[in-house]
Amino acid sequence: MKELDLLKKDWQKDDHSFEQVSEIEIYKMIHKKSSSIVKWILIISILEVLLWTCLSVCFDSDEYLEKIQHSEFIPYFEVLTYANYAVILVFIYLFYKNFILISTTASTKQLMQDILKTRKTVQYYVWYNLAMLVFSLIIGFIIAFVYNPEMELLKDKIAENNKVMVITVGVLLLISLLLFGLFWLFYRLVYGILLRRLYANYKELKKIDL
């Protein structure tokens, strides 16, 4: 925001006519920066979908289910996958819609509203992905434990000794927390930085609108 600070310093030094020019220039600069930020949010979300699609091809859940001889779960996972992609595509459409709105906005108040709307959409998107991660981990652990024949030895040990069950649950919780933490950190760094910059723009606009 160095350019904005310089403009505001000049704004305070000169007369009222220059104040009006500076206000317009500040708005244009914030408008441009906000549009750029939302564009990057859209691009990153698309790249993220492409990344998960590539990973799903490399790690095929259908092959795993066939390996443990429980292919009857495949249709359910396909429905879940399609539903998940449908929700993500809706979010991407909303990001695109927000980008168009911010790019074409002509008033300060409307730009402020569009910025807040975009921030909420991104926050919902992040929490949805984190919730889906937790859900997927729970389903994956249940299927692996209940239906994978390789888990029979572990089940016998748990039946014989409760400590083994406590250790197993502890390990699963630790793995889940580590994965959740990594994903949360990723979203915090990538989307969090963009959202903080977007909110900084909102606060600058609020000063102009007063």
Which stretches of 5+ consecutive residues score pLDDT under 50? none
- Please report the distance between the alpha carbons of the first and last residues: 20 Å
Relative helix content: over 70%
When the domains are counted, the total is 1
Largest sheet: none
Radius of gyration: 25 Å
Number of helices: 7
Shape: elongated
Structural class: mainly alpha
InterPro entries: MFS_trans_sf (IPR036259)
Keywords: Membrane, Transmembrane, Transmembrane helix
Protein name: Beta-carotene 15,15'-monooxygenase
What does this structure look like?
This is Beta-carotene 15,15'-monooxygenase. The chain crosses the membrane at residues 37-59, 79-103, 124-147, 167-187. It comes from Flavobacterium fryxellicola. The chain is mainly alpha-helical. It has one domain (2-209). It has seven helices and no strands. Helix 1 (2-13) packs antiparallel against helix 2, helix 2 (16-58) runs antiparallel to helix 4 and helix 2 (16-58) runs antiparallel to helix 7. The longest helix is centred in the C-terminal third of the chain and has 48 residues, at 162-209. 13% of the residues are buried. The model has no long low-confidence stretch (mean pLDDT 82).
